[in-house]
Design a protein that fits this description.
- The structure is a homodimer of 270-residue chains.
- Chain A has 270 residues and is α/β, with parallel strands linked by helices.
- Chain A folds into 2 domains: 2-91 and 212-259, Rossmann fold, CATH 3.40.50.1860; 93-207, Rossmann fold (3-Layer(aba) Sandwich), CATH 3.40.50.1860.
- In chain A, 47% of the residues lie in helices and 18% in strands.
- Chain A contains 11 helices and 10 strands.
- Chain A has helices at 12-22, 43-60, 71-84, 92-103, 115-120, 122-129, 142-147, 154-173, 192-198, 208-219, 239-250, and strands at residues 2-7, 26-31, 65-68, 89-91, 108-113, 133-138, 180-183, 204-207, 230-235, 257-259.
- In chain A, the strands form 2 sheets. A 6-stranded parallel β-sheet of chain A has the order 4-3-1-2-9-10, with helices on both faces. Chain A has a 4-stranded parallel β-sheet with strand order 6-5-7-8, with helices on both faces.
- In chain A, helix 3 (71-84) links the parallel strand 3 (65-68) and strand 4.
- In chain A, helix 1 packs across helix 11.
- The first copy, chain A, is globular, with a radius of gyration of 18 Å.
- The relative contact order of chain A is 0.19.
- At the A-B interface, helix 7 and helix 8 of A face helix 7 and helix 8 of B.
Chain lengths: 270, 270
């Protein structure tokens, strides 16, 4: 089984990391690093970029199942991607909302994400479809802190503490009795321990990387934990930078990243 | 006198703020907010964007002098801009390096900037031309902290303290006897007090906004402090966001921002 995993950058590697541990397959990961960040771009542009990336993974790499490990692309372009490729597609907003539905007894949930994801209200919409009440909070400093490499760092712990206190206050003001917190950004699993320390114990923290791997396993009816999974990597910008930054997210060294130019293939833009 | 001030976003408003206090003129400010950030983009793309922005300010708005209040555009595209418009052009890398030359007695200087500016080594090159030794340090968390609105904030003070300690260590390791620190990002003047608190007193801090205003005054031979300066504003993305974020950098309310679409004019790109 060949599975494609797509993100605009590195965050999707936390999803791949969970997949490698759970679902045995030949993975092909594409990070569209030349065109990141997707977050601030229009729906049309994000769709054009994401579709060209998805087509590369399916048409050129022969993957038979596609995981959209990018919150912005999942929020803005999932239908366009489904229309463009002939294989099953699963996006992280969907899998996060599914897991929130399964977890929440009070039907009230909280989501933290980047500013762009929060502004799209994709999680709130996906939660509403599942009859969950949701509040969303943007945590714009967390990705820059992770990119600076400040993971186990007192400044990061303090920023997480401030954001979580604001989130609890926002939930209180909205009258929510939330029992579930969705990490709505693929970078955040690296901060899971610090986030759990900063919220009340009754809150169940949903890591979209983990639940995505679980839902891929369910879809493919693969019961046991994965062994023998392999991965190959493509990036659209500097492979050196991809290796250096990416290994932090994957939790292991990355070798053999190949550069791919999606713009010159006529499937991209410019 | 009509003076154009250009930046990819909001940071250039600190330069405009200094200009408004120093040089009486009719200012036209353009923030190319639809295409920011410039930092991660190629030299060709930055030049195309910056030239179309400069042409708008000169050809359509009739400005007679141009200030490039954007470090990336100054670093990567100053010659292209000069070739494209028929008016004098001054860029912030130039003005910062000029001020460092005037300030430094030891001929050793330090520059802090965004990762993109540091990677371009534009300040190091401009300093070398002036026979100054320079070390450059990227401070990638400062812009996100300012955009979060955490200006007078303990987390920001701590991040500044850590970066400045790293900078001092870097200077020591390089054997530099620096007496001057250039703020090589137009966002940083908002953090000047915190930066000065975190470095030894002997270091003179050069605020590129202030020194740019001073050098514009010299070029235009305007000796006295400005009174009667006015400003109009254009942005290529949401004017609401421009007003909200921009007033922080300008230090006063911004009204009457006009939206301009540079891409549809055939001078820009997609």
């Amino acid at each position: 089984m060949k599975i494609g995993v797509f993100d605009s950058g590195f965050g999707g590697l936390t999803v791949l990391r969970a997949l490698l541990q759970r679902v045995p397959a030949e993975y092909v990961y594409l990070g569209d690093t030349a065109r990141l960040p997707y977050g601030a771009k229009s729906r049309e542009t994000v769709a054009r970029y994401a579709v060209s990336s998805a087509k590369f993974l399916v048409d050129e790499q022969g993957t038979e199942f596609l995981v959209i490990a990018c919150n912005t692309a999942s929020a803005l372009a999932l239908e366009e991607i489904r229309d463009a490729v002939g294989v099953p597609v699963l996006g992280v907003v969907e899998t996060g909302a599914n897991a929130a539905e399964a977890s929440s007894k009070t039907r009230d949930v909280m989501v933290i994400a980047t500013a762009a994801t929060v502004e799209s209200h994709a999680y709130a919409a996906a939660c509403a479809e599942r009859r969950l009440r949701a509040i969303e909070k943007a945590c714009p400093l967390l990705v820059p802190l992770l990119e600076e490499g400040w993971i186990e760092h007192p400044v990061t712990a303090e920023v997480v503490r401030i954001y979580m206190a604001e989130l609890m206050e926002q939930a209180r003001a909205a009258g929510l009795n939330a029992d579930t917190l969705v990490l709505g950004c693929t970078h955040y699993p690296l901060l899971r321990a610090q986030i759990e320390k900063a919220v009340p114990e009754r809150l169940r923290v949903i890591d979209s990387a983990e639940v995505t791997a679980e839902q891929v396993a369910q879809r493919l009816r693969i019961p046991e934990s994965g062994a023998g999974a392999t991965a190959r990597f493509f990036a659209t910008d500097s492979v050196t930078k991809f290796r250096a930054l990416g290994s932090r997210f994957l939790g292991q060294e990355i070798d053999g990243v190949k550069l791919v130019d999606l713009e010159r293939r006529g499937t991209g833009s410019r």
